[in-house]
Design a protein that fits this description.
Elements: E1 7-9, E2 16-18, E3 23-29, E4 32-38, E5 45-51, H1 53-74, H2 81-113
Antiparallel strand pairs: 1-2, 3-4, 4-5
The structure holds zinc ion (ZN).
Zinc ion binds near residues 39 and 44.
Length: about 120
């Protein structure tokens, strides 16, 4: 079972806090939509998810597939192997694409986020 409120250790100050203690926000940096968390102790900002057009499209597809799975669950209907395969593929695609975005933009985005003059209006 996945822990829905895991503890996250801040890379900057080393404090450990549960996820819900972090401030979660979205902003635009480097032409990307960025979901980020702010450490409740030292206010360092951490990138949670980077989103460009393609990432958003993949996430949307993933959400739609998840929804179809939920509906089948609710109706007590068996899941087709095709649907499960699609879900797996979409999940992997999302993860891989996110890894690519992070490799390319994570450093620049993190620097921008943590500039003292950065405005946090989204
Ligand atoms: Zn911190």
């Amino acid at each position: 079972m996945e822990d829905l409120n895991p503890k996250i250790k801040c890379d900057k100050c080393g404090s450990e806090n549960i996820l819900s203690n972090y401030v979660f926000a979205t902003t635009k940096v480097c032409g990307l939509e960025v979901d980020y968390l702010t450490c409740p102790v030292c206010a360092e900002k951490f990138v949670f998810l980077l989103k460009d057009k393609k990432q958003k499209a993949i996430l949307k597809q993933l959400k739609a597939l998840n929804h179809r799975v939920e509906v089948k669950h609710r109706l007590n209907k068996p899941l087709s192997s095709g649907l499960l395969k699609q879900l797996n593929q979409s999940f992997r695609e999302s993860k891989d694409y996110q890894a690519g975005l992070r490799a390319e933009y994570l450093q620049a985005v993190t620097e921008q986020l943590n500039k003292s003059d950065f405005e946090t209006n989204s």
